[in-house]
């Protein structure tokens, strides 16, 4: 399953998914692998991109993920380390 979502607290969402504590649709499927992230500082741009991606067929999304992360490896640790470094600066 490919889940596309928007959040202003990815770190917290990832923790909840890992612990399977989500009380909504996506939590019931045990989604626990972050394979792609796009960051936006303008919420309107983020919302538009989310709508755009959700409108694409699965094959397009799969190709996008494979292009940026060919093995669909979990990037959660990498992402969190980089975020902590950015906050520390």
Helical fraction? 40-55%
Q: Judging from the principal axes of the Cα atoms, what is the shape?
A: globular
Please indicate the count of domains.
1
**Rg over C-alpha atoms, rounded to the nearest angstrom:** 14 Å
Rounded mean pLDDT score: 81
H/E element order: HHHH
Distance between the termini: 36 Å
Biggest sheet statistics: none
Q: Got a strand count?
A: 0
Give me the number of helical elements: 4
Parts with pLDDT < 50 across at least 5 consecutive residues: none
The class by helix and strand makeup works out as mainly alpha
What share of the residues does DSSP label as strand, in percent?
Answer: under 5%
Description:
With 89 residues, the protein is mostly helical. It has one domain. 52% of the residues lie in helices and 0% in strands. The model has no long low-confidence stretch (mean pLDDT 81).
Question: How do the strands and helices of this protein lay out in sequence?
Answer:
Layout: H1 10-18, H2 43-55, H3 58-68, H4 76-88
Descriptors for this entry?
about 50% helix; mainly alpha; globular; about 90 residues
Condensed summary:
The chain is an all-alpha fold and 89 residues long. The protein is 52% helix and 0% strand.
């Amino acid at each position: 399953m490919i889940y596309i979502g928007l959040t202003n607290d990815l770190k917290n969402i990832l923790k909840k998914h890992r612990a399977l504590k989500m009380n909504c649709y996506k939590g019931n499927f045990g989604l626990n692998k972050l394979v792609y992230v796009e960051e936006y500082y303008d919420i309107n741009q983020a919302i538009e991109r989310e709508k755009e991606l959700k409108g694409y067929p699965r094959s397009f999304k799969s190709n996008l993920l494979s292009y940026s992360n060919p093995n669909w490896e979990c990037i959660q640790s990498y992402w969190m380390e980089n975020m902590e470094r950015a906050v520390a600066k």
